[in-house]
Amino acid sequence: MSAATARPRSDPFAALRGVKPRPRPRELGLLVLVAVVLVAGSVSLGLYRTHRLDPADGGVVVSYLIALGIGHFAQVLAGRRTDQVLLPAMGLLGGIGLLVMIRLPQELVQQSFGGTTLGLAQAQLAWLVLAIVVASVLAIIVRNDSWLRLYKYTWAAAGIALLLATFVLGRDRNGATLDIHLGPISGQPSELLKVILVVFLAAYLSENRPLLVEQYTRLGPFRLPPLPYLIPMVAMWALALLIVVVQRDLGAALLFFAVFLLLLYVATGRATYVVLGLAAFVVGSFLAYKLFGVVRERVDIWLDPWSVAQGAGYQVVQALYAFGRGGILGTGLGAGLPTIGGNLPIPEVNTDFVFAALGEELGLVGVLAVLGLYLVIVERGLRIAAAAADDFRALLATGLTLVVGVQAFVIAAGNLKLIPLTGITLPFVSYGGSSLLANALVVGLLLALSDRGVEAPPPPRPPGGRLARLVDRGAR
Amino acid sequence: MDGFLLSLWIARLAFLGLLYLFLFAVVRVLLRDLRSAAREPGSELGRLVVVASPEGEPPPGAVFPLDAVTTLGRDVNNTVVIDDAFASAQHAALTFRGRAWYLEDRGSTNGTYVNGSLIEDIAPLGFGDEIQVGRVRLRLERPRS
Amino acid sequence: MTDWGGQRAPLGRNVLRVGLVLVLAFVVLAGGDGYWQVMQAQPLSAAPDNPAIIAAARQVVRGRILDRDGKVLASNAIDAAGQTYRVYADPSLSGVLGYASLLYGTAGLERAFDAQLTGIRSADPVADMLRKFQASPYDPSDLTLSLSLPLQERATALLGKDRGAVVMLDPSTGHILAMASTPTFDASAIADPATAKAAWAALQADPGKPLLDRAVQGLYVPGSVFKIVTALAALGSGAIAPSTTFPQQPAAETNGLIVSGYKVVDGHHPFTDGEALDFVHAVEVSCNIYFALTGLKLGGAGLSAEAEQLGFGAPIPFDLPTAASQITNGGGNIGGGFKDDVELANAAYGQAEVLVTPLQMALVAAAVANGGQLMRPELVTGLTDRSGTVHRIDPQSWRDVVAPDVADTVKAAMEQAVESEWGSYFTPGAKVPGIPTAGKTGTAQLGGSGEPNSWFIGFAPVDQPKVAIAVVVEHGGGGGARAAPMAGQLMTYYLKELAQ
After folding, report:
1. Which chains touch C (3 or more CB pairs under 8 A)?
2. To the nearest 10°, the Cα dihedral for C281, C284, C290, C295?
3. Is B5 in Cβ contact with C135 (below 8 Å)?
4. Which residues are within 8 A (CB) of C500 and not within 5 positions of it... i.e. 6 or more apart?
5. What does the pLDDT average to over C124-151?
6. Among C4, C133, C134, whose Cβ lies nearest the Cβ of B62?
7. CB-based burial label for A106 (10 Å; 0-12, 13-18, 19+)
8. With a CB-CB cutoff of 8 Å, which residues 103-122 of chain A face chain C?
9. Is B54 left (phi over 0), alpha (psi -120 to 50) or beta?
């Protein structure tokens, strides 16, 4: 279906002919501020390193800012009335991540593209530029959501295929199967899977929402949710457990289940389901703790990392030391993370523990700002959801927002020893192509959904079966 | 404290301070948005209520919030799908132009009616008017405040 | 009428609620971050395995450690490779200072004050925060101790080849004057990269366990020195008065005291000749029967409560890690965790399951000497940073353990135990010539056939005590044989030659 069908005249070029550039002053203003912040950060890092007013890796920072600017002008040219805060907020988080990558030893990552080998910062820059492209393109071309809405089972199948591919082709990293490698391409499928999952859940829940009116599944004395809710609930629970069992990827399992429960609550407004889901979560966690060594180990480390400070709890303890060294104002960019014999104290500091690095070098003050940026994205996403034209769009926007917010919470809380550590990335900040691209998908879709002038959603379908009769009676 | 340390101080605090300047600017945008959203009660321009629908698609009683352009017809790509044997695929279009509503017949086989009378090509419309597409009757209502 | 469009309204409300949940979650994150970055920042930054500390140890020239008169106890030398390493003034300091080695880490004060010596943490939290703005966040401090190097050397020399410990402190300030533990080890040899490996291997193989700081970590049966604890408890609670006598005591001297079918024997002071002893005499001749009866009258709970006040039952807060002294293994049903009256009666005169550190017994003597007010024991009295700014650590009162009149009663009895005719029979050599001296010996029976551990605790001068002491010599024989004369010599040396 083309975007033109929404217009009264059936002119295939109407969509293009109707395009008028529309200035985006707020976005531009915020992006200018982003540029100022990042240049200041680069200067701060360069000053510490060279003792001169010499921005560190100025070329990388400027390239990134140019990419953001191009993204902005593409939006201006497209002329859509989309959100003007999301791109700068994502841009600043990505930029802070880029500064951290510039600051870390470049040998942490050696990414080969063709003949050239990119270090950590350059590779991250490449991924960030790609992420901006993905977000911008989605924000410009997606005017119609039926390709998401109507093919939900196709998406579900694709997700399951992706999961199976991970089971089969996955490679182990730190005891968890997170990466798949297909020839030269490698990635973390769970990042893409989370977006697919949200699309499916939004479609499924919005379609079945009317059934909530008056339906229960009776099981003895219990009034359980109607089957259309119960089945995905059990399926999701089983899926999360499966991910834990087969991939030992606790982070993805926790993220999926939490997003599912919250989305279920938004769709139904029933706290009962959340309580039921939490009960299932407790049971599942208990089973996992009893049955699987990896879960038990994580929980034991969480309870007392110092007892294994030189072994399994090393990273967690080192992360806490990093927070402690940072204090209120931080050590400043470049001045933290003391190396011993040339080694960084925290392995995986560019991915799972980037939050600890932020804590050390930017301090409590900087961490609060970063948390604030995530809340800004959450606010925008949920506002887009609340203003959405129909249930599917509302649930989709909510789900996409939750994916980012919950993921940031899970990894930050893991770093801070508030919950057991799970290996997922800090959205937009951590190093990694899969993570950046998946989160760019999220932002791109949210931007597209935020356009008020977009094609109206299809009308709600009539409910079938008992409910239709109920509605008929009510209408008379 | 020497000049280098002083400038390092300033650079570090400037970075943190600018982060908050950004947050402050964003929050101002958010607040302005919230205020303007509070002023506009809703984005819908009007509502279309299904009065009668013998074949149940759309169901009687259903309410469609209206944007500036709403197409009606049997084809699933219409904004409001009228699944009625007497409706054409591209039956009619409801448009809001400036201050008034207009109903336009898009060359349907059985014609489009306003308050029971057949319209030719295009006709102005007011809130409370009833339109008929095929055997389906719908009423244009004021947007909900 | 069913309003399909209207379904969106409640959904918006749910979205808002979910948003609030997320905001709450992020507030929790902020709280957690504040906890680690503000409240826990100091202890985390000072943890010995914090990479910042380890890196600092490799780069930074550690601060020196000085004694009370400014004599250098620990300083730095540079090896051929340009690496600095630690040099210690005397092996007698090994227990207190420990060592700082690139190969084997840190121990003793070098470990406890690693953060300050390397400069990752200063005594002033505000300066500490501001220091984060400096390019090189290291500002090593010198430590000044209350220790006196000559006294420390003398104490170690007197212990000689015996294993044991001496703790001397100023009862009015809690400042540790000497804290010897034998056998000692050569910490300089561990710190010097050239000799570290061989010295370390020899140390690990030594059956005398020189790395154990006996003064704070050694747990010993106290024997009769523990009677002072029982006395403080019993007099303080009113279970006995100074005039209290036990009519059954004289006969028990010859026949033994039957407690629940078990016989407590004594009979080491035949010259008291059937006299029922009062409190002062019982201390003077160290009468086991009297204190067993006192313990039974007092009850386990009363003994336990007073012992806890004195520091038993938990590690003593101190600049070095300490072992917890105990009066019983616990778990028993009669008060204070004692199993039965037999255990209580034996514990009351320092046998049964009573185990103490020399530091703990020195604190008991200090509490009596200071009129019932126990000062917090302290080794480090000041930190001097590179700019020369001195941060003094002032003496702190820890607890008021008994009323001043009770302390005076016990003080008088301990004075008699050294000065009187009967007392001096048991405490030969403990008296400081020309200065009124108080004390109590202990002879801790260890079971088996070996010589008992020799104990002495005391203080001088009696009126205005300037020094309190605890001495233990493993297998040194009776308290009068080794510990009492050593204590006398050390107090004399300190009061006559050092204190002025």
Report:
1. A, B
2. 120
3. yes
4. none
5. 72
6. C4
7. middle
8. none
9. alpha
Sheet strands side by side (includes C176-182): C176-182, C164-169, C467-473, C453-460, C438-444
Judge contact between C103 and C204, C-beta under 8 A: no
Closest Cβ–Cβ partner in A267, A321, A474 for C2:
A474
Name the 3-class secondary structure at C408: helix
Contacts of C137 in chain A (CB under 8 A): 331, 335
pTM for the full predicted model: 0.62
* Placement of tokens 């999220």 in the chain: A442
Inter-chain CB proximity A409 and C41 less than 8 Å:
no
Q: Compute, in degrees rounded to 10, the torsion defined by CA atoms C359, C361, C366, C368.
A: 160
ipTM of this predicted structure: 0.89
DSSP class per residue in A260-322: HHHHHHHHH--HHHHHHHHHHHHHHHHHHHHH-HHHHHHHHHHH-GGGGTTTTTHHHHHHHHH
The tokens describing C262, both together, are 């078990």
Contact present, A360 and A331 (Cβ < 8 Å): yes
Chains touching B (3+ CB pairs < 8 Å): A, C
B-contacting residues in C 30-59 (Cβ below 8 Å):
none
Range picked from A468-472, B12-16, C130-134, C418-422 for highest mean pLDDT: B12-16
Q: Is the confidence at residue C8, as pLDDT, over 60? A: no
**Cβ atoms A230, A217 nearer than 8 A:** yes
Q: Is any Cβ of chain A less than 8 angstroms from the Cβ of B1? A: no
A319's tokens: 């992360």
Structure tokens at B115: 């308050």
Query: C452-488 as b/e, with b when 16 or more CB fall inside 10 Å?
Result: bbbbbbbbbbbeebbbbbbbbbbebebbbbbbbbbbb
pLDDT tens digits for range B60-80: 888 888 877 888 998 888 888
Question: How many CB atoms neighbour CB C133 within 10 A?
Answer: 19
Least CB–CB distance from A382: residue in C4, C8, C15: C15
Beta pairing class for A111-113 and A116-118: antiparallel
Looking at the DSSP bridge assignments, the partners of residue C435 are C432
Burial-class residue C489 by CB neighbours within 10 Å (0-12, 13-18, 19+). middle
Handedness of CA C302, C305, C308, C312 (dihedral sign): positive
- Asked if B25 has any chain A CB less than 8 Å from its own CB, the reply is yes
Residue of C nearest to B8 (CA): C133
pLDDT, tens digit, 9 for 90 and up, residues A178-217: 666 655 556 778 888 889 889 988 888 887 776 654 566 6
> Which pLDDT score is estimated for B40?
57
Name A109's Cβ contacts closer than 8 Å, sequence gap at least 6: A118, A119, A120, A123, A124, A350, A431
Q: Which long-range contacts (CB under 8 A, 24 or more apart) does A294-298 make?
A: A294/A175, A294/A176, A294/A248, A294/A250, A295/A244, A295/A250, A298/A250, A298/A420, A298/A421, A298/A422
C280, burial (CB in 10 Å: exposed 0-12, middle 13-18, buried 19+): buried
Sign, CA dihedral A140-A141-A144-A145, equals negative
Check if C9 contacts B (Cβ < 8 Å): no
Specify the 3-state DSSP secondary structure of B79: coil
User: Which residues of chain A fall below pLDDT 50?
Assistant: 1-10, 213, 460-476
Indicate the residue of B8, B25, B57 with minimum beta-carbon distance to A29.
B25
> How far C65 CA lies from chain B's nearest CA (Å)?
28
Chain B residue with minimum CA distance to C136: B5
Contacts of A265 in chain C (CB under 8 A): 14, 17-18
What mean pLDDT do residues C215-224 have? Answer: 93
Q: Which amino acid is at C105?
A: G
Backbone angles phi, psi at C297, to 5 degrees: -70, -40
Residue with tokens 């990552």: A109
What pLDDT is recorded for position A225?
67
Residue C135 contacts B, CB cutoff 8 Å: yes
Amino acid symbol at A140:
I
